[in-house]
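Example (one chain per record):
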Amino acid sequence: MRVTLLLAVILCSACTCRGVPKGFVLMSPDKQRVEFEKYDFDTQYRIFICSQQKVEPPELELATLFASKGTAIIKPLESKLNETNEDRTIRDIVFVFSEMSRQGTYEVASDKSLMDELQEKTNAIRDPTVRFTTEESLHRIQTKSGNAKIGSS
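Predicted structure:
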């Protein structure tokens, strides 16, 4: 635990994310979960994106926490997806939707317009590694619903 915390301090000492409460990424996972729940959607979103893109290793448990909100965050998260063309941000948002599907907090695969948007954004990803990871998340959503598409890119 101490080694992990020390490593996070070292890896994140230069990590600054606009709008993320100071010191959040240095908190223990238990403290992060408690604090995360206190914030509004926009702050949670900034924390989540920062934790995926600036922290090594990425804090995947925050995706699980974020996805547990289900229906309550569909519209604002879909708006964030529509606003971005950044490969890693698309990947991270699609991962939250796949977590919603896995947890059963929202039937993502049943929302055709959302699925179309997720597919369109995934197809637009330029980095092949990021695209592959995103396609895996999208496939998990499709597989859970029984609507898996082979070669959908």
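Caption: The CA atoms of residues 42 and 76 lie 9 Å apart.
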